TrEMBL record:
Binding positions (ATP): P88, L89, A90, R91, G92, M93, G94, S95, S96, A97, S98
Family: Belongs to the GHMP kinase family. Homoserine kinase subfamily.
Name of this protein: Homoserine kinase
Residue span, GHMP kinase C-terminal domain: 204-279
């Protein structure tokens, strides 16, 4: 059995406006992990965008790995883990989901569990509470997912959507807990029906690659954006400015504070140049969709296996 592995997990954006806690898209930014069996746990952070956790077993990725092992009645041997990340923390780009998915995959590889993608999503969802980010990171592409009270998870994924995005990544964090705390406990039947209809229209627009319509629906959410936008300074101004610069639509990425603009493919640089310097607290970054999902390679042969 190989005792060295590499795992690559893509970032993700969730919701896309009205697809609250259900729609996710994998992004071309990555958490990369190298693993080697060792005599004791050790984590080396090789880049920024990673949490400084003195005790490796307090690290979210290792917690996820040990939870996975325990679910299958096994114990995880200690490993030396080296990590690189392009995913900023607490910015609404699935940093916690990517760490959890990496941990599940770590246990899967080290213990040779031979888990299916659906098995991995079930473990990740138990830890995350909702499957949208984890589904995108595991499967890649455009995903719609739902978890039921009895633990069943349903997921749909599509890889044909040729959309292009620009991220507005701020120089400050917004914790998911804070973003959830401003949401109402309930919605009226009329609001729920309208919000659900908009989410359905958004899904249909993306699947048919009608991006102008998709952008319109991205900005019509009733579930969470009306409450969260006020937590993100300049967010409403960015939505207007992005539209004027040519974006089809702009929404909060996940729980924020990053914003996500849907743009015509090939216009990313022009779009960014129009807004250069207008919002100095935000870095504008073009990002394609990732279509591979989580990828692992073993030992030195470099043979990649899609997870």
């Amino acid at each position: 059995m190989s005792n060295k592995w590499k795992i690559s997990v893509p970032a993700s954006t969730a919701n896309l406006g009205p697809g609250f806690d259900s729609i996710g898209i994998a992004l071309d930014k990555y958490l990369e992990v190298e693993i080697e069996l060792a005599t004791e746990w050790k984590i080396d952070n090789l880049t920024d965008n990673l949490p400084d956790v003195p005790n490796p077993q307090d690290h979210l990725m290792i917690i996820a790995a040990e939870k996975t092992a325990k679910m299958y009645g096994l114990s995880l041997p200690p490993c030396h883990v080296s990590m690189k990340s392009e995913i900023p923390l607490a910015r609404g780009m699935g940093s916690s989901a990517s760490a959890i998915v990496a941990g599940v995959e770590l246990a899967n590889q080290v213990l040779d569990l031979q888990l299916t993608a659906h098995d991995k999503l079930k473990v990740a969802t138990e830890m995350e509470g909702h499957p949208d980010n984890a589904a995108a990171s595991i499967f890649g592409g455009f995903t719609i997912s739902s978890s039921t009270e009895n633990g069943d998870i349903h997921v749909f994924h599509a890889y044909h959507i040729d959309a292009s995005f620009v991220l507005f990544i701020p120089n400050y964090e917004l914790k998911t807990e804070a973003a959830r705390s401003v949401l109402p406990d309930s919605y009226t039947r009329n609001v729920s029906a309208q919000a659900s209809a908009i989410a359905n229209l958004l899904t249909a627009a993306f699947l048919s690659q009608s991006f102008e319509q998709a952008g319109m629906y991205m900005e019509q959410d009733l579930f969470h954006e009306p409450y969260r936008l006020d937590l993100i300074p300049e967010s409403r101004d960015i939505i207007v400015a992005a539209k004027n610069a040519g974006a089809f639509g702009t929404c909060i990425s996940g729980a924020g504070p990053t914003l996500l603009s849907l743009v015509q493919k090939g216009t990313e640089k022009e779009f960014i140049s129009k807004l250069d310097g207008v919002f100095p607290n935000f870095e504008l970054v073009p990002v394609p969709i990732n279509r591979t999902g989580t990828v692992t390679s073993k030992n030195k042969e470099g043979s990649a296996v899609l997870s």
